[in-house]
Specification:
InterPro entries: Ankyrin_rpt, Ankyrin_rpt-contain_sf. It comes from Ceratopteris richardii (Triangle waterfern). This protein is mostly helical. The protein contains five helices and no strands. The chain has helices at 2-7, 10-18, 33-39, 43-51, 66-70. The chain starts with a helix and ends with a helix. The mean pLDDT is 93.
Length: 71
Amino acid sequence: MCKAAELGSIGILEDLLKYGCDINSKSIDGATALHIAVAAENVEITRFLIEQGARIDMYDTKASTPYVLDI
């Protein structure tokens, strides 16, 4: 999920979700796909992830949430 968000690919994200991937899965540094999309200022991916149920309250290893990254 994180790599697909980094690449900005809704198609890959859709496929991963279709095959049961967890939208809130974390990378090694604790970031979710939503953390990555917000940090990259990718509004399209951010909106897609939130619409699909990504949580805005998940912390990464730096104690940041996607919501905090957007401020």
